[in-house]
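Kindly go through the entry underneath: sequence plus fold tokens. Please state briefly how this chain folds according to its tokens.
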Amino acid sequence: MTHLALSCFSGAGGMDIGLEAAGFTSVGAIELDHLARQTLAANRPEWPILDLHDVVEAGEVLMPADLGMEPRELTVLAGGPPCQPFSMAAQWSQPKRGIDDDRGKTVGGMLKIAERFLPQAILIENVTGFLQGRNSAATIISDHLDRINVAHGTHYRLNHWVLNAADFGVPQNRRRAIGVAFRDLDESDAIPAPIGPFEGAHLTAWDAIGHLRPSEVPAAEGGYSDLLPSIPEGANYQYLTARGGGPEVELFGYRTRYWSFLLKLRRDAPAWTLPASPGPSTGPFHWDNRPLAIEERLALQGMPHTWKLAGTHRDAVKLTGNATPSPLAESMGRYILAKLESPALAPSPDEIRPTLAPKRRSGPPAPTPPTALPDRWRSQVGSKAAHPGAGAGPSRHLRPSE
């Protein structure tokens, strides 16, 4: 039996790679960014890229017949809508806008496509705030699914969880919201959270990239780059604070910088979450005290390290940082197929084990010890004030007095 997938917000192809590995055949990809479309075409010319690039527009006009299909023939409609309106930062800076943000309207476009195609399953991947918190889209999605059910006699209901991609074979600690809605499973069919086949036995950064020899190795930039050798693997700038464990060095105040400031990978643990638009001091950095190469970023997302990315180096960083981790997508695809096959049973970890997970390698070498502080920083060593604590930072001056 052929399982058909239509992807929205396809990006660099992380979701599509995973669904392909799970056994799905692509009937189309909808992607607005031209560099992402070039990336998809260069790597998988057999994946149809729809002329309708905008999901909002596609939601108004795209019909199953346009793809040579009948309603209810599509197995899965999958996508990760733009995350900015639902991110943690957006929840604080623009409370409750979420679904009303212009970018949030793309969620409505995807649901309109769902109503026309009536797929057996809908799969959504996004930041944790997408389906929980004050910017959550969960209520809006559920209300729309209820309207579809009334109009078409379906049984869609949103099931969602926050999962760590590392539990599903991604060599990266990356918490993601996963939403799944099945067309024909009714209220009596339990939809348990997928059990990660790598839970408690995560793959490491060394497993994913220790063997790679990148074609281009980026150099560290910015005014703080020479501090990286002074920080141990797995640590960040806090090592150089009063509570950081450094050798009597207090260069920064404790918790006065963002967490990923001068953050370095550990070889024997999963990577920290890869950002899409890192500044020059934003980690995670390689244990060799440099930014990650593009091949390494791809491998840490569980994508082929040979995947060709269109555009500049900065474009490639953004494309990889925004991608859905492919082993996670593969596991979710396998989860969906298992539930469609046996609705009453909870898929086992082995049933959803991703083939795209990196292979385990022999143990990494011992970490390189941190070096002494560069001479130019020694004059700045001294007592520094720590962050004043939750709710007592600079932003408190922007709130009305109590």
